[in-house]
């Protein structure tokens, strides 16, 4: 029987680094990119074309892309990379186009308070900002992913109902996003809440166009990922080392760790196309660049003998 396949979208260079106290140099980000590619990743969110006043850690995204292009030119990196970056508005999209990205991601939320805190507008205004972004993308054949933050809980408003989330997720698809990543931004959801929302999404549009983006603030991320997997979700965002968090979601910790996700899928004989053995040793570089211990349990203790 053919193995079940899942697609892991690596967040380390964007979600992972955007919340760190230190700004990681472009040189170290290039080194991390090269290591992730060596572990099999082709789909990487490498940064964000947002205001450097709002998220200084993402400054240098343009320079990182330039260096990746140079490395591709000299065959140090393969040609088939699918790089993406966040764009909040037309200005960000212009920068992404100039940088030559084949894919971008727009982001909004299912909570008004979080949207205001994160991108300084209402949810409705965020959709208006996406209109020119999607238009530019369509004419240039650039793929657009959508993120919907606070799909379960908001740091300011508390619980968010599926009835609020589902129409917004569908609206992102209708606008032209090829996929919507459903975010538990502050890592507060439980597996039962994951089941409820994804069951609702499945009834409306199937699960093929939805991804799970789970933060691990309360230790639920891997359980939440498996709740979504059992329902049929096959695309997950994860971050090497478990780095991550949103600077505008107070207290939010990292994404589910890529190493921990690969460990559990490998144990289940699910195909990720990625090399866990090549990721685990990245811990030393990660801890040097972010200047603290990473949260990934698998990266911390390593693989058991014979795994
Ligand atoms: P604003 O201040 O309302 O924007 O910020 P503005 O249009 O009034 O412009 C103000 C200044 O920002 C101007 O510069 C613009 O040029 C500049 P000034 O004249 O003052 O020098 N500006 C920009 N600069 C660079 N790139 C741009 C851009 N647009 C305007 N694209 C804005 C609005 C959206 C720019 C701001 O709020 C922002 O950058 N927010 C970013 C927030 C962010 O990146 N958050 C983290 C990512 S989201 C996340 O982590 C959640 C996710 O992981 C999923 C999940 O976990 O749920 C995706
Ligand atoms: Mg996130």
Fold and architecture overview:
With 307 residues, the chain is an alpha/beta fold. The chain has a single domain, classed as TIM Barrel (Alpha-Beta Barrel), CATH 3.20.20.70. It contains 13 helices and ten strands. An eight-stranded parallel sheet has the order 1-10-9-8-5-4-3-2. A two-stranded antiparallel ribbon has the order 6-7. The two termini are 22 Å apart. The structure holds 3-hydroxy-3-methylglutaryl-coenzyme A and magnesium ion. The site of magnesium ion has 8 residues, from loops.
Tell me the CATH architecture.
Answer: Alpha-Beta Barrel
Q: C-alpha Rg, in Å? A: 18 Å
Strand content: 15-25%
Helix content: 40-55%
CATH-defined topology:
TIM Barrel
The molecules bound to the chains, other than polymers, are: 3-hydroxy-3-methylglutaryl-coenzyme A, magnesium ion
CATH class (first level) name: Alpha Beta
In terms of quaternary structure, the protein is single chain
Task: State the fourth-level CATH superfamily.
Answer: Aldolase class I
Key traits:
TIM Barrel, eight-stranded parallel beta sheet, two-stranded antiparallel sheet, binds magnesium ion, 307 residues, single chain
Structure in a nutshell:
With 307 residues, this protein is an alpha/beta fold. It has one domain (7-301): TIM Barrel (Alpha-Beta Barrel).
Can you lay out the helices and strands and say which pair or pack?
Layout: E1 7-10, H1 12-18, H2 26-38, E2 43-48, H3 61-73, E3 82-86, H4 90-99, E4 103-109, H5 112-119, H6 123-140, E5 143-149, E6 153-154, E7 158-159, H7 162-175, E8 179-184, H8 191-205, E9 210-214, H9 221-231, E10 235-238, H10 258-267, H11 276-279, H12 283-290, H13 297-301
Parallel strand pairs: 1-10, 2-3, 3-4, 4-5, 5-8, 8-9, 9-10
Antiparallel strand pairs: 6-7
Helix pairs in contact: 2-3, 4-6, 7-8, 8-9
The structure holds 3-hydroxy-3-methylglutaryl-coenzyme A and magnesium ion (MG).
